[in-house]
């Protein structure tokens, strides 16, 4: 009999184009060898050119998906992505407490919070009044938060332009309650390297890598956060899961492909031809 793989749950929105959202999470979980499960929060109408709109899933259906899989199959690590509204954020936060996922719960199942606010085209994926709920309800429950620089600005008011302000942003985010933060540096386009900064307030790790010249980076944030979640599900500590996730996203950006008339997706396909 095939041994049962570790499990990872994504609580996220659907991207009809398949490059980001829960589709990116599931294909990354698969490529990393963990069994992926989903609690769908919203359905976006999205392609390589942007997000034309979205519709939220009723709150009781979102939470029922989480309890259904947690109670039966078990969750080794979880990740949140697009949560869309205050109501969904509040309900997800209390359901995570009930099923024992996240910081502060007894079971210590790790929770990665990717505080998704907008797509790379600038289309909103979070209602404007929901930012405060993300700050107060979700970030304190996070084992790791993984904002990009736009999300850092929204959450903390810190505008990151270099390594020094990236460190200040990490500190400001830690004050909102996550155990660890990863301030991603992909948006510092004038820097020849992509440096992501990991910190828990005591340890500070700079994860640097080459900046690939590609316009096709759709789903990059989701792919990185899911690869980290997969590592945590397999029992890695946060620093090891993040360095493994960084290696994963680097290859996925390097092998990103054009699809549609706009921005194509990063690709985890390279992993399928390799052993762990
Ligand atoms: N051109 C690139 N080459 C290599 N890595 C990249 C590139 N763009 C982004 N990354 C990496 O992809 C991940 C996600 O990046 P970022 O663009 O900052 O977040 P988001 O996709 O959430 O907007 C980070 O690890 C970042 O360093
Ligand atoms: C449904 C959905 N969720 C999240 C995102 C944003 O994903 P991300 O990985 O940050 O990728 P880009 O939007 O930067 O390509 C999304 N677009 N859709």
UniProtKB/TrEMBL annotation:
Can you state which reaction this protein catalyses?
A: 4-amino-5-hydroxymethyl-2-methylpyrimidine + ATP = 4-amino-2-methyl-5-(phosphooxymethyl)pyrimidine + ADP + H(+); 4-amino-2-methyl-5-(phosphooxymethyl)pyrimidine + ATP = 4-amino-2-methyl-5-(diphosphooxymethyl)pyrimidine + ADP
Could you tell me which pathway this protein works in? Cofactor biosynthesis; thiamine diphosphate biosynthesis; 4-amino-2-methyl-5-diphosphomethylpyrimidine from 5-amino-1-(5-phospho-D-ribosyl)imidazole: step 3/3
Plastid listed as a keyword? no
Give every Pyridoxamine kinase/Phosphomethylpyrimidine kinase domain span.
15-266
Under the cellular component aspect of Gene Ontology, which terms does the record hold?
A: cytosol
Determine if Ribosomal protein is one of this entry's keywords.
no
A GO biological-process term = thiamine diphosphate biosynthetic process
**Keyword list, A-Z:** ATP-binding, Kinase, Nucleotide-binding, Thiamine biosynthesis, Transferase
Molecular function (GO) terms for this protein are: ATP binding; hydroxymethylpyrimidine kinase activity; phosphomethylpyrimidine kinase activity
Write the Enzyme Commission number(s) for this entry.
Answer: 2.7.1.49, 2.7.4.7
**What Pfam families is this protein classified in?**
Phos_pyr_kin (PF08543)
Stored InterPro entries = HMP/HMP-P_kinase_dom, PM/HMP-P_kinase-1, Ribokinase-like
Q: Return the Gene3D superfamilies for the record.
A: 3.40.1190.20
Q: What does this protein do?
A: Catalyzes the phosphorylation of hydroxymethylpyrimidine phosphate (HMP-P) to HMP-PP, and of HMP to HMP-P.
Q: What is this protein called?
A: Hydroxymethylpyrimidine/phosphomethylpyrimidine kinase
